[in-house]
TrEMBL record:
Descriptive protein name: Major facilitator superfamily (MFS) profile domain-containing protein
Sequence similarity: Belongs to the major facilitator superfamily. Sugar transporter (TC 2.A.1.1) family.
Membrane-topology annotation of the record: Multi-pass membrane protein
Entry-linked InterPro entries: MFS_dom (IPR020846), MFS_sugar_transport-like (IPR005828), MFS_trans_sf (IPR036259), Myo-inositol_Transporter (IPR050814), Sugar_transporter_CS (IPR005829)
SUPFAM superfamilies reported for this sequence: MFS general substrate transporter (SSF103473)
Subcellular location: Membrane
Residue ranges of the TM segments: 26-44, 50-71, 83-105, 111-133, 220-242, 358-376
Domain Major facilitator superfamily (MFS) profile: 1-380
Domain of life: Eukaryota
Record's keyword terms, sorted: Membrane, Transmembrane, Transmembrane helix, Transport
Pfam name, any one: Sugar_tr
Annotated source species: Rehmannia glutinosa
Length: 409
């Protein structure tokens, strides 16, 4: 529901951005975050948690497109990429911090209410800090507030560069045609990217901060896509090997807690002695397993009636964390892709197996790699206006990351 809310938040946020500015859009996102957190913390029924998740999703959708937009429009071109990457690093750091905070609340009275409600604290902090920040100079200029835009640019750029930036803003507002093109080209990457680990994500963000303004966005995107494809293929092989060498299911342990607690498919199986842990997952969405470290066998469970027990299940000694990988992008299609991945992942694993599902995502990532190569130009060190002019002329890819026109020069 949070992802579904983010779809509408991104769409609605685009209108708010254009109508009322980037600053007010972020402030509204903070309010939605806070309302959602309080509603979830005070929930007396599941529908309240669902409603709170929708509010949080609306805020996520608005913030995900507005924050990097605000940063990029309010920062010098020479460090813009690093600052936007910093935003991504802080998002990743926030996710890791959330795990630690939740861990701290596991033994606290109220447990999940605190876990959900504490999310309102950073929203309040950001709301009041945001009040002290200026509006985007690019948006101000588009609203004919030229003097205010100049005043902000004078705080960002050296005095000898302000006039040049003002002229660039003027050209940009008069010919703002590139945004729709740039939106459409990035969404492929999001669909194929569904797994991450905090450490690797943080390292990737730091590397991006250090090199994005030196080597360019396009080159790093291509390298990162290669890394994503390799990791997804590795996960596919890992799950295939885990499936092949999965521990056997113990009939004794499976029926120890009663036949009503055991997976029905296992009880009706012609040769249950041939079952292993993965057989439970493939049999039905109602079936799960728990590993037994002592006997090296596993136990078949009916997950609907033993949900708490099924949560303890492991695949041997391998622990894999699967998360939605939220990309910072202005396109609503990214959130649609997130929703599709979230809603179909378990169905895909049931139909294709875990190995086949990750291999399918690797295929989507390969399509994304091809799309990035042919559709995404290099924008390193360029002003928005220069990007627009480049896209108007047309972009032809080359192996080194520059357009063929630039290479000829």
């Amino acid at each position: 529901m949070a992802v579904a809310g983010a779809i509408f938040g991104a769409a609605f946020g685009g209108w708010i951005n254009d109508k009322y500015g980037r600053k007010k859009s972020i402030l509204l996102a903070d309010i939605l975050f806070f309302i959602g957190a309080i509603v979830m913390a005070a929930a007396v029924a599941p529908w309240m948690i669902i409603l709170g998740r929708i509010f949080v999703g609306l805020g996520v959708g608005m913030a995900s497109m507005t924050s990097p937009l605000y940063i990029s429009e309010s920062s010098p071109a020479r460090i813009r990429g690093a600052l936007v990457s910093t935003n991504g690093l802080l998002i990743t750091g926030g996710q890791f911090l959330a795990y630690l905070i939740n861990l701290a609340f596991t033994k606290t009275p109220g447990t999940w209410r605190w876990m959900l409600g504490v999310a309102g604290v950073p929203a309040v902090v950001q709301f009041f800090l945001m009040l002290s920040l200026p509006e985007s100079p690019r948006w101000l200029y588009s609203q004919d507030k030229v003097k205010e835009a100049r005043a902000i640019l004078e705080k960002i750029y050296p005095a000898n560069e302000v006039e040049q930036e003002m002229q660039a803003l003027q050209s940009s507002i008069e010919a703002d045609k590139a945004s729709e093109v740039s939106i459409a080209t990035v969404s492929f990457q999001n669909f194929g990217t569904v797994t991450y680990h905090f450490g690797l994500n943080a390292v990737g963000s730091i590397v991006s901060m250090a090199f994005v303004d030196r080597f360019g966005r396009r080159r790093l995107m291509i390298v990162s896509m290669f890394g994503i494809i390799v990791c997804l293929i590795a996960l596919s092989v890992l799950f295939y090997q885990a499936s092949t060498h999965a521990p056997a299911v113990s009939s004794f342990e499976s029926q120890h807690f009663g036949r009503n607690s055991t997976c029905g498919s296992f009880l009706k199986a012609y040769e249950p002695s041939n079952w292993n842990c993965m057989s439970c997952l493939k049999a039905s969405s109602d079936c799960g397993f728990c590993a037994n470290g002592d006997s090296k066998d596993c136990t078949s469970y009916l997950t609907r009636r033993n949900g708490d027990r099924a949560l303890d299940c492991q695949l041997g000694n391998i622990s894999v964390e699967i998360q939605r990988h939220w990309r910072r992008d202005r396109a609503v299609s990214n959130w649609v892709s997130n929703l599709i991945v979230s809603e179909t992942f378990l169905t895909l694993t049931e139909a294709l197996g875990s190995s086949g599902t990750f291999l399918l995502f690797a295929g989507f990532s390969t399509i994304g790699l091809v799309a990035i190569y042919f559709l995404v130009p290099e924008t390193k060190g360029l002003q928005f206006e220069e990007v627009e002019k480049m896209l108007e002329k047309g972009f032809k890819p080359s192996l080194c990351g520059n357009s063929k026109e630039d290479d000829s020069k």
